[in-house]
Amino acid sequence: MSKLEFDVPAKGGFSFDLCKRNEMLMKKGVQPPSYRKTGTTIVGLIFQDGVILGADTRATEGPIVCDKNCEKIHYMAPNIYCCGAGTAADTEAVTDMVSSQLQLHRHHTGRESRVITALTLLKSHLFNYQGYVQAALVLGGVDVTGPHLHTIYPHGSTDTLPFATMGSGSLAAMAVFESKYHEGLTRDEGIKLVTEAICSGIFNDLGSGSNVDVCVITKGHKEYLRNHLLPNPRSYVSAKGFSFSKKTEVLLTKVTPLKEKVEIIQSGEAMEE
Amino acid sequence: MASDMGASYGSTLRYKSVERMKPIGKHSLLGASGEISDLQEILRYLDELILYDNMWDDGNSLGPKEVHSYLTRVMYNRRNKFNPLWNSLVLGGVKNGEKYLGTVSMIGVHFEDNHVATGFGNHLARPILRDEWKEDLSYEDGVKLLEKCMRVLLYRDRSAVNKIQIAKITEEGVSISKPYSLRTFWEFTAFRNPTVGAEGSW
């Protein structure tokens, strides 16, 4: 006789098993741990030759800045990049997952990935989870059909726009875009406008800060300008260095840099595959 | 000072010609957003204030700093009684050559600054003003800057209407312009057929 096996459904979707327990704990006064969010300013715009994406670099855990220089522009494909706002784990995981799906698809079809492929994969995943995967994304790239820019909301809806902003600093950045965007921007004008919008978010929104990252994608070529602008340098470093308490006699001072300087010598053969 | 002329009732645009900026006395201008009935109540209080001031007949008149202080006290007092006047007020004026611009919120938060805004203006207009305001703007440049802010607000605030007034306060007095509308641009080619590559998107 065959036994009936009760298998947990293998298909995806959120498992609501622990929700009752969480509710009970909250009623008893237990504070839920705060998420690491990228309270953020992310922007994208289409210029005459392609797409420019921009992002700030502050990651927050409630009221604390937990990472002063994080990377919010994620790689999806050689010609597609995605900025992420919302819960940091969700944006990382979902972009990583879709990026690997795209790579498998590229091997399968032998063609360059298209932006709408990434769009459809992301939006169907987010819709399946009914907004619980809190990732708000700005997806941009250039493929055979041309430059594309999309915004994806946590519940799975998408917009196709010439210029877009997301995150807590989106209103400050959108104010800059609405007043200064026009069609036919050149590459330098586009980078300048994106930088201005991100700076507007950095200085006017408390959830955004630190530096500006920019990524320029054109047909067949991409440039990831990490820390393109550093408008918040550490300007008041103490010149005295480290000082010991009064009674200590300093016998020897030796400074060891933490990062080794490695020299790459161009010689020898490449590794055999 | 610039304001649009719309008054909504929930999500209905009920009145489209509401003057939300009023001159107060000889030296000040009050602009308000929020509950219109509370604004009318505030105007009644200020009317009484100015009346009593005129009755003194002492050659002195209440300037913008004094009116701002009075409004702050009124708003804070009402907040403490758990019965606030649901408004965000902007008070501007010139007296004896001194310019003054201040704001009071419904909970009594008050401050003066070179540029202030209420409601959505705080999120959309103040970033622009912080970047582009400078000392000694001429009147025309100031109007252009305010129009730029109002245009962004028109695009991005769902309760905005395209009918604005600009008010000018100088030593000579207050003048509020006639209502006019801003030129907007909706003809981006990307708006024409946005989902030509991505079916199912907006």
From TrEMBL, chain A:
What molecular function does GO assign, one term?
threonine-type endopeptidase activity
Enzyme active site: 40 (nucleophile)
Q: Does the keyword Metal-binding apply?
A: no
The family database entries (Gene3D superfamilies) matched by this protein are listed as:
Glutamine Phosphoribosylpyrophosphate, subunit 1, domain 1 (3.60.20.10)
Assembly notes: Component of the 20S core complex of the 26S proteasome. The 26S proteasome is composed of a core protease (CP), known as the 20S proteasome, capped at one or both ends by the 19S regulatory particle (RP/PA700). The 20S proteasome core is composed of 28 subunits that are arranged in four stacked rings, resulting in a barrel-shaped structure. The two end rings are each formed by seven alpha subunits, and the two central rings are each formed by seven beta subunits. The catalytic chamber with the active sites is on the inside of the barrel. Component of the proteasome complex.
Which PANTHER family is this protein grouped with? METALLOPROTEASE TLDD (PTHR32194), PROTEASOME SUBUNIT BETA TYPE-7 (PTHR32194:SF4)
Name-wise, this protein is Proteasome subunit beta
Its lineage reads: Eukaryota, Viridiplantae, Streptophyta, Embryophyta, Tracheophyta
UniProtKB/TrEMBL annotation, chain B:
What Pfam families does this protein map onto? Proteasome
Taxonomically, the superkingdom here is Eukaryota
Which is one Gene Ontology cellular component term of this protein? proteasome core complex
- CDD domains hit by this protein: proteasome_beta_type_4
For the keyword Nucleus, the answer is yes
Q: What is this protein called?
A: Proteasome, subunit alpha/beta
Please verify whether the record's keywords include DNA-binding.
no
Q: Name one GO biological process term.
A: proteolysis involved in protein catabolic process
Going by the UniProt record, its keywords in alphabetical order are:
Nucleus, Proteasome
Native organism is Dillenia turbinata
